[in-house]
Amino acid sequence: MAKCIATVPQSITGIYKGEKVRAKFSCYSEERAMWGTTTYKLRPVSGTCKENEDFFRTTPAGDISITVKEDETNARLSLGSDYYIEFVKVLEG
Questions:
Q1: Nearest to 41 by CA among 25, 61, 52, 60
Q2: How high is the pLDDT of residue 46?
Q3: According to the 3-state scheme, what is the secondary structure of the chain?
Q4: How would you write the pLDDT of the chain (93 residues) with one tens digit per residue?
Q5: What is the model's pLDDT at position 49?
Q6: How many structural domains is the chain composed of?
Q7: Fewer CB within a 10 Å sphere, N or C end of the chain?
Q8: For residue 61, what pLDDT is reported?
Q9: What whole-number distance in Å separates Cα of residue 81 and Cα of residue 75?
Q10: 59, 74, 64, 75: which is closest to 29 by C-alpha?
């Protein structure tokens, strides 16, 4: 499990703001396929420190599963690491 930061910056304590939701997830699974893809699975962090307790109370529940093609992305996830994930509504027009 990734380390928690010592203090929660003000910018992440207001998790729901307008059209944006910020969540904190931890990568718990990494499955490599023989055809050159890797599937990562993430789940919301639990209350292992003050920051994670705050996110656990307000983060949407559920798992995230993403598959990336190894030669098409530089954004590698690491098993056991935590990630902030932002969901931002696409505005029409």
A1: 25
A2: 82
A3: CCCCCCCCCHHHHCCEECCEEEEEEEEEEEEECCCCEEEEEEEECCCCCHHHHHHHHHCCCCCEEEEEEHHHCCCCCCCCCEEEEEEECCCCC
A4: 555 554 444 444 444 556 777 888 899 999 988 888 889 999 988 877 888 888 777 777 789 999 888 765 556 788 999 998 888 888 776
A5: 84
A6: 1
A7: C
A8: 79
A9: 13
A10: 64
Range of the domain at 68: 25-87
Distance CA 85, CA 16 (A): 12
Q: Which residues contact 45 (CB under 8 A, 6 or more apart)?
A: 24, 25, 26, 52, 55, 56, 59, 82
Query: What is the spatial distance between Cα 10 and Cα 78, in angstroms, rounded to a whole number?
Result: 26
